[in-house]
Amino acid sequence: MTAPRITHVAAGILLRPDGTFLLGSRPAGKPYAGYWEFPGGKLEAGETGLDALKRELHEEMGITVTAATPWLVQTFTYPHATVRLQFFRVTGWDGEPQPHEGQSFAWQTPGALNVSPILPANGPILRGLALPPVLALSQADTLGIDEWLARLDRRLAQPAGQGGLRWLVLREPQLAAADYRALATEVLARARLRDCRVLLHGDIELARELNADGVQLPARIAASLDRRPRGLDWLGVSAHNADELAVARRIGADYALLGHVAETVSHPGQTALGWNGFAALTDAGWPFPIYAIGGMGDDDVTTAQVHGGHGVAQLSMAWSKA
Ligand SMILES: Nc1nc2c([nH]c(=O)n2[C@@H]2O[C@H](COP(=O)(O)OP(=O)(O)OP(=O)(O)O)[C@@H](O)[C@H]2O)c(=O)[nH]1
Ligand SMILES: [Mg+2]
After folding, report:
1. Whose alpha carbon is nearest atom 21 of ligand 1?
2. Where is the Nudix hydrolase domain (predicted)?
3. Is the CB of 119 under 6 A from ligand 1?
């Protein structure tokens, strides 16, 4: 058997500062005409993904891309072709999108689309767009439970975009099972009032039982699973290398934490990946967003994105200002 021919495609997610993004409708005469997609098209011989993105967005809608960072790579088999789609987050462009190919455009809010149908390959992409740029891991171990809960309340009370916490992983390996369950119950009750997702760490059964938003799994536990656990909205996997990212892909994770990127007090003596090591791992192209973890501040979000990440995951930095 010969290997299937793969069509390489670059597509751009135009993002406005308010978080809305652009979809275009596929023009008549193309496969899946009328379906909504991210603007883009096929790589020509010798082009990189970024070259093709810039050319296609100029041809299809007359804009000049000035800032774009690599995001997800999705491989999908249609009846007519197997496509490898490289998605870029596009945050800077000159000009207003013009429908050069008779397409329609629609600005959309993540999680609340008002156009359909969407190209079948794009489901995971739309899910990934709903993930915030910064997520936090709890720190009751070093702060003490009462102090950490007080800081959590302050972070929950802030509006999104102004330091408001929207995604929390409750990771407290020092707690006995009964104490972890009690804390999880308390945290879920507080977070629900504030529209913050809470993922439990490592315990799939407990996450189901307490109706948490999902579970964050260490790579070791993820590797022991045949498939994604059922009945949970969100699945994150913590990874340190390409093999562990491959585990996350195999079980259909929604995102991965990858690190540690910088030296941290919590992991003394372990070699940090550094941004070059991080980029070398993201560069292979993964179908889910990847967060940089380990010594990350709010200022590192842009750096993470330039290196192929979605954003940053914070431990101590999430609570130091709260
Ligand atoms: N542009 C784009 N293509 C996508 C997306 N999702 C997805 O599965 N595709 C697939 O990627 C393939 C290439 O896209 P395209 O039709 O835009 O290619 P193109 O602009 O070079 O068109 P052309 O071949 O008519 O010149 C198609 O099979 C399309 O179905 C998406 O979000 N954006
Ligand atoms: Mg196109």
Report:
1. 41
2. 4-133
3. yes
Whichever domain contains 246, its CATH number is: 3.20.20.70
Which one-letter DSSP state was computed for residue 38? -
| Residue 76 beta carbon below 6 angstroms from any ligand 1 atom | yes
Report residue 313 as tokens: 């995951």
**Does residue 223 sit in the same domain as residue 278?**
yes
Q: What is the pLDDT of residues 47-80, one digit of tens each?
A: 999 999 999 999 999 999 999 999 999 999 988 8
Relative orientation angle of helices 145-157 and 177-192, to the nearest 10 degrees: 20
Of 100, 123, 146, the one marking the end of a domain is 123
Provide the ipTM.
0.96
Q: Which of 6, 9, 26, 38 to mutate to test the pocket of ligand 1 (most atoms within 8 A of CB)?
A: 9
Q: Which residues contact 219 (CB under 8 A, 6 or more apart)?
A: 237, 238, 239, 240, 244, 247, 248
pTM above 0.90, yes or no: yes
| 42, 57, 77, 89, best to mutate for ligand 1 pocket (most atoms within 8 Å of CB) | 42
For residue 37, give the ligand 1 atom closest to its CA.
32
